[in-house]
Amino acid sequence: MLDKSHKNVTCDTCGARRFSLFNNVSEVELNGLDHAKSCSYYKKNQALFVEGSYPRGVFCINQGKIKVFTLGDEGKEQIIHIAKQGEIIGFRSMFSEEPYKVSASTLEESNICFIGRDEFLNMIDTNQTLRNGIIKELSKELGERALFITNMAQKSVRERLAFALLILDEIYGDEQINLTREDLANFVGTATETLIRLLRDFKDEGIIETHTRKVQIINKDKLLILAGKK
To answer: What is the pLDDT of residues 67-115, one digit of tens each?
Structure first.
């Protein structure tokens, strides 16, 4: 269980900071950031922001995982990114001064810090390392999204599932992949029933094991071949 009091969540002691863009800020800037931020406990499936609303700042993930998604015509989600510990989300729309083009909500209980727009922009103006990190992050994301869209558009559902599981394996690291079947289907871009059938096929082929809703990859080489990456 997460600590819901947040009394121990400071930028200086934050375990996620070493993975974030704030890893190389000075001690003075870190103290300023610590005073400017506010931290909150989020329940599972709680919204951070919704498509069409205007950004007021950025969200830095201390613990937990967040799904970033769009809604189709019939209200079906298409998950385009899963953010993890140390990631900052919400700054793209803030830079463009446009409403959010996507929504974001928690996949699990999460600790998330919020930094207001003015404080964040001021840090970027005064910290070249942070500014360069943001530019690098935007460039990296553009390439990753282009690859993701290409794979989702040109591959079969079976190949897309293999590709998605490889992405999720990197996100979850030493943990087993822990998504609802509906969320996994929305990440792959298929119907939940199709997703369940394909997971059963992958299990029969010795590629994965399932533990209730959790997925464990046991043959990564087969997944790489299926996804066209080997």
So the answer is: 999 998 788 899 999 999 999 999 888 888 889 999 999 999 999 999 9
| Predicted TM-score of the model (pTM) | 0.89
Using CA atoms, how far apart are residues 184 and 142, in angstroms rounded to an integer?
22
Mean local confidence (pLDDT), 29-53: 91
Dihedral (C-alpha) 96, 48, 14, 176: value to the nearest 10 degrees?
-110
Q: What is the mean pLDDT of the chain?
A: 89
Where in the chain are the domains? 17-143, 155-226
Query: Residue 2's pLDDT is what?
Result: 56
For the record, the structure tokens of 211 come out as 């533990």
Fold for domain 17-143? Jelly Rolls (2.60.120)
43, 66, 88, 92, 173 from 85: Cα distances, Å: 16, 9, 9, 18, 11
Would residue 160 be called left, alpha or beta, if left means φ above 0 and alpha means ψ between -120 and 50 degrees? alpha
Distance CA 223, CA 147 (A): 17
CATH code for the domain defined by 155-226? 1.10.10.10
